[in-house]
């Protein structure tokens, strides 16, 4: 990585004692402004990070960040490690619309990106397609999220393997890459039963959204139920996926942990006394025109609203949880 990029990362608001993620708020008409919000101190810090300007910045596996540049078409895409200062170029992303809301991607890596067998999976948040490639290849392979009668909603890396959640059937599958093909392998237990959570019938009133989260060594499915018109969250349900047993268990509590959700990446951390975070809770953001953060208490299902910072520009701000 060139010297200028190294210097830009020295401006990041790092705290060696911090045990929770920052919320990065990218705003301005071209995402040229960035504000870092510390949820434990309820304060925000403005920083000029040239490497982040005009880009989607999203956390991904193994401590790497995904950067997508909106100013160059087709979109330039790379992975950056802010600790080692390594930068790995990815293929350009072709786009079908001038709306930047089409370009938000959840990124999952199969292995550390400096591994020659690492695959990069991009899940488009606002479109019905996936992109994937092996690091070093010149082009992303594009395929629909629709797999026959099922729909690929979200994915995460858990203990070195990529798992995906299929929203129609309620199945957890293991993702594999074979040449130009993306394969979904069903998880079946010793009784011949699929790892599947039965959902209620779809409703015209409620909207659902699911997130797979690696939470302190456990794989969790966080199911959000909300109202279609207002986009407000009604409640969450949390399921622990037992990979070895190919079974699931609904949790009523996550103890001393907190979950951090956003549309382009989610994570979980233990809450310490120093962090001053709310235990047994979910911190979440929503796509929209505000930078509101909500804190959901898992025990009593209450919600608390936080407003982290003002923004500039007419387009919706982009918020992502990142670890510095």
Describe this structure as you would to a colleague.
It comes from Handroanthus impetiginosus. This is KIB1-4 beta-propeller domain-containing protein. The protein has 324 residues and is an all-beta fold. It contains 1 helix and 26 strands. The protein is globular and about 55 Å long. The two termini are 18 Å apart.
Summarize this structure as a short list of keywords or feature phrases.
mainly beta; five-stranded mixed beta sheet; globular; five-stranded antiparallel beta sheet; 26 strands; 1 helix; 324 residues
Biggest beta sheet summary: 5 strands, antiparallel
- Spatial ordering of strands, largest sheet: 12-13-14-15-16
Mean pLDDT: 88
Provide the succession of SSEs.
Answer: HEEEEEEEEEEEEEEEEEEEEEEEEEE
- Report the β-strand fraction as a percent range: over 45%
Structural class designation = mainly beta
**Total number of helices:** 1
> How would the global form be characterised?
globular
Beta-strand segment tally = 26
In terms of per-residue confidence, which ranges show pLDDT below 50 for 5 or more consecutive residues? none
Output the radius of gyration.
Answer: 19 Å
How far is the first residue's CA from the last residue's CA?
A: 18 Å
Query: What proportion of the residues is helical, as a percent range?
Result: under 10%
Fold blueprint:
Blueprint: H1 3-9, E1 22-27, E2 33-38, E3 43-46, E4 55-59, E5 65-69, E6 75-80, E7 87-93, E8 105-109, E9 119-124, E10 129-134, E11 141-144, E12 146-147, E13 150-158, E14 161-166, E15 171-178, E16 181-186, E17 206-215, E18 218-227, E19 233-242, E20 247-251, E21 257-261, E22 267-270, E23 281-284, E24 293-297, E25 303-306, E26 318-322
Parallel strand pairs: 21-23
Antiparallel strand pairs: 1-2, 1-26, 2-3, 4-5, 5-6, 6-7, 8-9, 9-10, 10-11, 12-13, 13-14, 14-15, 15-16, 17-18, 18-19, 19-20, 21-22, 23-24, 24-25
Organism: Handroanthus impetiginosus
Domain KIB1-4 beta-propeller: 36-297
Protein name: KIB1-4 beta-propeller domain-containing protein
């Amino acid at each position: 990585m060139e010297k200028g990029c190294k210097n830009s990362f020295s401006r990041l608001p790092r705290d060696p004692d911090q045990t929770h993620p920052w919320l990065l708020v990218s705003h301005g008409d071209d995402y040229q402004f960035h504000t870092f919000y510390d949820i434990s101190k309820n304060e925000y810090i403005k920083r000029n990070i040239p490497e982040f300007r005009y880009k989607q910045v999203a956390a991904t596996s193994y401590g790497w960040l995904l950067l997508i540049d909106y100013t160059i078409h087709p979109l330039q895409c790379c992975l950056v490690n802010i600790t080692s200062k390594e930068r790995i170029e990815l293929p350009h992303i072709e786009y079908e619309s001038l709306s930047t809301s089409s370009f938000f991607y959840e990124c999952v890596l199969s292995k550390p990106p400096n591994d020659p067998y690492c695959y990069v999976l991009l899940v488009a948040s606002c479109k019905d397609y996936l992109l994937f490639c092996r690091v070093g290849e010149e082009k992303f392979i594009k395929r629909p999220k629709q797999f026959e009668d099922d729909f690929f909603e979200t994915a995460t890396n858990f203990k070195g393997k990529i798992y995906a959640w299929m929203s129609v059937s309620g199945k957890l599958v293991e993702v594999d890459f074979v040449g130009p093909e993306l394969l979904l392998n069903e998880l079946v237990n010793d009784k011949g039963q699929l790892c599947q959570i039965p959902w209620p019938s779809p409703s015209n009133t409620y909207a659902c959204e699911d997130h797979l989260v690696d939470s302190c060594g456990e794989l969790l499915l966080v199911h959000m139920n909300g109202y279609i018109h207002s986009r407000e969250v009604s409640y969450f349900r949390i399921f622990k996926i037992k990979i070895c047993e190919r079974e699931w268990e609904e949790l009523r509590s996550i103890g001393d942990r907190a979950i951090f959700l956003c549309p382009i990446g989610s994570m979980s951390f233990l809450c310490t006394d120093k962090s001053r975070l709310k235990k047994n809770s979910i911190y979440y953001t929503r796509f929209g025109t505000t930078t509101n953060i909500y804190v959901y208490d898992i025990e009593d299902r209450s919600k608390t609203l936080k407003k982290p910072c003002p923004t500039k520009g007419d387009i919706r701000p982009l918020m992502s949880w990142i670890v510095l």
